[in-house]
């Protein structure tokens, strides 16, 4: 299999594509015989011809072989195209790294464009004052949060083979290979592609929460842990070079978070025991890595007192450890009699081993949930906190520097110290999330059973607040004799688990509690009330538990009201007490996915922007620091898109040196599977935040915001009319997309819906966006833009001139329009029409499809008019060419998916015979293959 001819692509990428395509062809012939290879080639040639003819519908040449396919051949053909895309994605990843190296070589000795040193140099050229840079560095926080959202459809086994293929392909480019070495690497490629082909891509069972934890740890341990020190080193070197008057030392501005094992919103499998086990698994994995670092330091710091001096502090530290560790200390002295650094490091390994024993998670492979009754308290001689380990490394560092070992102090020891500061004892801070509806039910139960206050769920908002404040201010809870619902008991145990984790691993390990679907102040007071009832009182001075309550505004209405809600919340003395105890920093999360599903692409983005513009002013007026948490997904319809432009588009003053954002599903693999890509992604985050936080640009002009108000109103009306007010739309969506089959993918431990109803409101945003992407309508990423811009006639030259000015001069509007371009470019209306043929009521299907196509055409015209382009993505030719080259290889999978869906649905929803199961299995492979081809799910 090879790419079709088109615009020139880089020679190295072309060679890799040819090599991988030929290797896959070899495997297809070996595994499926010439019949499979010929079938794949027939589809490929028919699809290429169809695209070259600028077809308006699927051609007979493509559909005829689809109709002849039996299920087994269909599976293999789809697997062939899907595997091809997996391999091409690997080749493109390596090409990206090559491009970065080539650019660095061309620009040397100047720093590579976009690198941390180049960003710092750019700040100097922009005239950023040294004091302003220092203030930004002191506040700086980059906080990616890994989630287990079900948009990663590839199994871990598939990902492992792809990583090995990437490693073999990279090795082939190292140069100076002997002929037999090159032959061996090519054979290794064939082996891995064969293993990939023989690996089942469809999950037989959904992953458990702890399996999801293991998947997240894969990236933390394999990549993130490795790349962190170099980023810190880049920053400090660049400051020294370009801002010599500024102290180059920076704090641990990179912090990683996780929702995996803590996100219980709609996932009954995430319990308090799972949360505690999650932190044990994380801590054990981290301590194993620390142990490996210590062993490497023992190997490297072999200085002898017969050759060089050491500090008295180091000798005193060894003596102090010896008094606590006894026989272990004597052993280290016997093994390294003249090597005090090795003695100290060996003792540190011993203390670390004792710490590891206190967080031993048991058999991770068996995924046994550790009993919540077991504490995380360390043994007396163990490290009780990461600060104790850091103090030991301080002694080593200072002794080296004072005794001609400064170069050694700033090498592997410095790397270890940065990791300690970044990861603590917990690795990634675990956020807890729960839906406000669950809290309200638990609060009602507690008030009625413990405090004889009934009817909470029917109280007006003001009465709810008064009841909660009154009970919390009255003193301790009286739970004697109360019989609680099991859901209430679980809601309370979350807080005691958070306390146990903090006491064992530090306050940063698990202190953030996010309230999904926050609609009013009581939704947040309920969390403080539940903590109070659990005996973990965030207001009690004697309780050293940190609790950061975070509202999540994710509907259009709640985003609009969020400034007023936060102002009312900060006016409550009881809440301000809790906020003060948690550092006087209010974290506020805004949801990109559900706001889009609620109000459409343009309105969602505009309401998010306005909320992020107003919330800092509210917090500032109360003397409270703010950190906005961006709940972004991977697809455009869920807040995805280029990261740098998204950060540059943030309202002035909303970042203030802090950026926290979710990293979801397939995005985690894309950004963190390869160390080089991971370094580049984090470098881009850091550079964009530094640039945006030191930008002194003003607010958008009043006529711009007035124009966007009007656009948003019209786009919102168009979107709501289609999705929520068109009779039969839900039936169209359920039949014209593979939504039901996506729900059966078993890609996550949580269900696709919150609750049991079948409406759009209860459907999670990921399957909503995923389904539209699979059918190539991409509706969440553009719908409404055409109606908004074109209402009143396309000849409104004055408004068009204003829109072009906004696109040119306002980063937010430019990002909004460019992301819509990406969605329109990757959408394909003839393909969407093919899926529309699945709808039983073809009159309904025609009506809705006509609306979608009409809006698409309007949107395309609007985008071209605003950008001044001749064709969509003329301003991003690399992406445009990638889409063009990929389409002919995705088309066969769409055609086969529609064919299989038609056959499967004809059997009825309840069909459970072997043939129906095989059809479902085949459909799952089409979903995986199309996702690989589009490089997007939900």
Descriptive account of the structure:
With 938 residues, this protein is mainly alpha-helical. Among the domains are: 272-423, de novo design (two linked rop proteins); 432-509 and 512-581 and 585-591 and 618-623, no CATH class. It contains 37 helices and nine strands. It has a nine-stranded parallel beta sheet with strand order 3-2-1-9-8-7-6-5-4. The two termini are 28 Å apart. The relative contact order is 0.10. Residues 2-6 and 361-375 have low confidence and may be disordered.
Poorly predicted ranges: 2-6, 361-375
* Cα separation of the termini: 28 Å
Describe the oligomeric state of these chains in a short phrase. single chain
Large-scale geometry? globular
Radius of gyration: 29 Å
What is the topology, as strand order, of the major beta sheet? 3-2-1-9-8-7-6-5-4
How much of the sequence lies in strands comes to: under 5%
DSSP helical segment count: 37
In short:
The chain has 37 helices and 9 strands.
Strand-helix topology:
Layout: H1 11-52, H2 60-68, H3 71-107, H4 116-125, H5 130-139, E1 141-146, H6 156-171, H7 179-198, H8 209-242, E2 257-258, H9 272-300, H10 312-325, H11 327-335, H12 340-358, H13 386-402, H14 406-409, H15 412-423, E3 429-430, E4 432-435, H16 436-450, H17 461-474, H18 486-505, E5 512-516, H19 522-533, E6 548-553, H20 556-570, H21 573-581, E7 585-591, H22 592-599, H23 601-621, E8 625-631, H24 643-648, E9 658-663, H25 666-672, H26 675-693, H27 702-723, H28 729-736, H29 739-743, H30 765-774, H31 785-790, H32 797-809, H33 811-826, H34 829-836, H35 842-867, H36 877-906, H37 914-934
Parallel strand pairs: 1-2, 1-9, 2-3, 4-5, 5-6, 6-7, 7-8, 8-9
């Amino acid at each position: 299999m090879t790419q079709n001819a088109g615009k020139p692509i880089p020679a190295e990428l072309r060679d890799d594509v040819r090599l991988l395509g030929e290797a896959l062809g070899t495997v297809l012939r070996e595994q499926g015989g010439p019949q499979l290879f010929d079938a794949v080639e027939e589809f490929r040639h028919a699809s290429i011809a169809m695209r070259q003819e600028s077809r308006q519908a699927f051609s007979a040449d493509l559909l005829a072989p689809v109709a002849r396919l039996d299920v087994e051949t269909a599976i293999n053909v789809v697997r062939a195209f899907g595997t091809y895309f997996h391999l091409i994605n690997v080749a493109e990843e390596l090409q990206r790294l090559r491009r970065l190296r080539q650019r660095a070589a061309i620009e040397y000795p100047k720093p590579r464009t976009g690198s941390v040193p180049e960003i710092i140099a750019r700040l100097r050229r922009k005239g950023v004052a040294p004091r302003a840079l220092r203030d930004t560095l002191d506040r700086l926080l980059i906080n990616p949060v890994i989630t287990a959202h079900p948009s990663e459809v590839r199994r871990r086994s598939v990902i492992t083979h792809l990583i090995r293929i990437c490693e073999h392909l990279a090795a082939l480019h190292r140069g100076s290979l002997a002929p037999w070495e090159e032959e061996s690497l090519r054979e290794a490629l064939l082996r891995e592609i064969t293993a990939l082909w023989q690996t089942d891509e469809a999950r037989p069972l959904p992953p458990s929460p702890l399996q999801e934890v293991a998947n997240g740890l894969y990236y933390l341990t394999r990549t993130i842990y490795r790349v962190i020190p170099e980023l810190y080193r880049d920053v400090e070197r660049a400051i020294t070079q370009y801002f010599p008057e500024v102290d180059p030392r920076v704090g641990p501005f990179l912090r990683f978070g996780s929702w995996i094992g803590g996100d219980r919103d709609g996932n009954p499998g995430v319990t308090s025991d799972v949360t505690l086990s999650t932190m044990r698994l994380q801590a054990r994995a981290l301590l194993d890595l620390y142990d490996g670092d210590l062993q490497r330091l023992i190997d490297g710091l072999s200085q002898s007192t017969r050759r060089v001096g050491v500090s008295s502090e180091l000798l005193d530290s060894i003596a102090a450890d010896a008094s606590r560790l006894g026989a272990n200390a004597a052993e280290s002295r016997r093994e390294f009699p003249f090597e005090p650094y090795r003695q100290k490091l060996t003792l540190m390994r011993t203390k670390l081993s004792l710490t590891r024993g206190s967080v031993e998670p048991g058999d991770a492979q068996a995924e046994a949930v550790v009993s919540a009754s077991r504490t995380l308290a360390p043994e007396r001689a163990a490290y009780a906190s990461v600060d104790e380990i850091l103090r030991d490394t301080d002694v080593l560092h200072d002794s080296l520097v004072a005794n001609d070992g400064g170069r050694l102090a700033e090498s592997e020891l410095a790397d270890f110290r940065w990791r300690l500061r970044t990861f603590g004892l917990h690795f990634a801070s675990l956020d807890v999330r729960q839906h406000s509806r669950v809290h309200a039910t638990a609060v009602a139960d507690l008030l009625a059973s413990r405090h004889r206050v009934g009817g909470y769920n029917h109280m007006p908002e003001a009465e709810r607040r008064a009841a909660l404040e009154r009970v919390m201010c009255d003193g301790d809870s009286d739970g004697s004799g109360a019989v609680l619902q099991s859901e209430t008991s679980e809601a309370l145990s979350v807080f005691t688990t958070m306390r146990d984790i903090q006491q064992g691993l530090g306050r940063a390990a698990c202190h953030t509690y996010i309230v999904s679907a926050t609609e009013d102040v009581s939704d947040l007071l309920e969390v403080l009330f539940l903590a109070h009832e659990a005996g973990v009182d965030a207001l009690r001075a004697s309780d050293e538990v940190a609790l950061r309550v975070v509202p999540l505004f994710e509907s259009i209405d709640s985003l609009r009201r969020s400034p007023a809600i936060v102002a009312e919340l900060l006016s409550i003395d009881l809440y301000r007490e809790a906020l003060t105890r948690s550092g006087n920093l209010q974290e506020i999360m805004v949801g990109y996915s559900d706001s889009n599903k609620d109000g459409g692409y343009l309105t969602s983005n505009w309401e998010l922007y306005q909320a992020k513009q107003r919330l800092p002013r509210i917090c500032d007026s109360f003397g409270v620091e703010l950190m906005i948490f961006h709940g972004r997904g991977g697809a455009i319809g869920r807040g995805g898109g280029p990261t740098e432009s998204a950060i540059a588009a943030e309202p002035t003053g909303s970042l203030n040196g802090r950026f926290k954002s979710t990293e979801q599903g397939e995005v985690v693999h894309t950004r963190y599977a390869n160390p080089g890509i991971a370094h580049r992604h984090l470098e881009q985050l850091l550079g964009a935040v530094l640039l945006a936080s030191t930008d002194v640009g003003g607010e958008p002009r009043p006529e711009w915001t007035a124009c966007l108000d009007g656009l948003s109103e019209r786009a919102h009306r168009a979107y709501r009319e289609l999705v929520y007010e068109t009779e039969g739309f839900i039936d169209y969506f359920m039949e014209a997309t593979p939504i039901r089959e996506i729900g059966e993918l078993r890609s996550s431990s949580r269900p696709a819906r919150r609750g049991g109803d079948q409406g759009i409101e209860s459907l999670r945003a990921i399957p909503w966006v995923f389904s539209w992407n699979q059918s190539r309508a991409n509706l969440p990423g553009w719908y409404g833009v055409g109606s908004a811009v074109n209402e009143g006639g396309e000849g409104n030259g004055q408004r068009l001139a204003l829109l072009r000015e906004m696109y040119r001069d306002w980063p937010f509007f430019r990002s909004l329009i460019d992301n819509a371009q990406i969605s329109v470019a990757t959408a394909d209306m003839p393909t969407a029409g093919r899926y529309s043929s699945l709808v039983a009521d073809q009159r309904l299907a025609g009506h809705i499809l006509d609306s979608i196509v009409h809006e698409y055409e309007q949107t395309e015209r609007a985008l071209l008019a605003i950008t001044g382009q001749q064709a969509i993505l003329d301003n991003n030719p690399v992406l445009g060419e990638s889409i063009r080259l990929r389409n002919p290889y995705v088309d066969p999978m769409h055609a086969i998916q529609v064919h299989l869906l038609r056959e499967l649905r004809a059997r009825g929803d309840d069909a459970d015979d072997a043939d129906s199961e095989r059809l479902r299995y085949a459909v799952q492979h089409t979903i995986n293959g199309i996702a690989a081809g589009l490089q997007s799910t939900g």
